[in-house]
Write a structure and sequence with these properties.
Blueprint lengths: L1 E13 H4 L8 E12 L4 E4 L17 H6 L9 E3 L5 H4 L9 E5 L3 H4 L7 E4 L3 E4 L2 E5 L8 E5 L2 E3 L7 H5 L10 H11 L5 E3 L11 E7 L3
Parallel strand pairs: 3-4, 4-5, 5-6, 10-11
Antiparallel strand pairs: 1-2, 1-12, 2-3, 7-8, 8-9, 9-10
Bound molecules: zinc ion.
The site of zinc ion (ZN) has 6 residues, from α3.
Length: 216
């Protein structure tokens, strides 16, 4: 199995979105990322990125599908897991017509503007294939999910910073505090390796970086 991270741009986010007691006036730079899991039979994207970002500035931006295609073709993608139906995670889904699109049922109405074909809505956490688990959290957004590959946790937007997890600080962008707190308590445990979807240090430039590669 192989996990690769892709960065296709940068934007900024008010500190108050990252930490619940943060300032609305302080803006923090964040990266725009999506991920690819390759197994023997599948190429699974986790989120797809966006070409536009209404209401937010876009810096050093390239269409996410172009960034992907420097690595592999869009037609080769078999599955797309959308962690949640926010614009920067879902807009580019239109490029993956051959793929099964996995989205939690609670997110469906928010995904309507993106006219998704090949949608496989799910209700409960499930195992997509050997070693790849999609887990409903529902903290950051309605039907929001994370993806676990063993102890590696693709966090979606359940947290933005390591500090959310280490210091159990809620983000300022939760629709369900109880679910968000349960996420922080569980996945802040040292046995997990959290992978953050907006961290400027995961890739650090437009392009991709292999996160890990294992035999199985
Ligand atoms: Zn996001």
């Amino acid at each position: 199995m192989k996990l690769t991270a892709f960065q296709y741009g940068k934007t900024e986010l008010a500190e108050a979105m990252i930490f619940e007691n943060g300032s609305f006036d302080i803006k923090q730079p964040i990266a725009l990322l999506f991920f690819l899991i390759e197994t023997e039979g599948r190429k699974i994207l986790v989120d797809v990125g966006c070409d536009t970002m209404p209401g937010f500035p876009l810096f050093e931006h390239k269409s996410p599908v172009e960034v992907l295609e420097e690595y592999t073709s869009r037609e080769s993608i078999t599955d797309v897991i959308i962690t949640h139906a926010h614009h920067d995670h879902i807009e580019a889904v239109k490029y993956y017509k051959n793929a099964h699109i996995h989205l939690h049922r609670d997110s469906l109405k928010y995904a309507k503007p993106y006219s998704i074909e090949g949608l496989s809505p799910f209700d409960e956490s499930f195992t997509l294939c050997d070693g790849v688990e999609v887990i409903k959290i529902g903290g950051h957004f309605f039907g929001s999910c994370i993806v676990r590959i063993g102890d590696f946790v693709l966090c979606g937007d359940e947290c933005y910073s390591e500090k959310n997890l280490t210091d159990l600080i809620m983000t300022g962008s939760s629709v369900n505090r109880e679910n968000s707190l349960a996420f922080l308590k569980e996945y802040g445990k040292p046995c997990y390796t959290p992978i953050l979807f907006h961290s400027p240090s995961v890739v650090g430039y437009i392009g991709h970086k292999i996160f890990f590669e294992t035999e199985t």
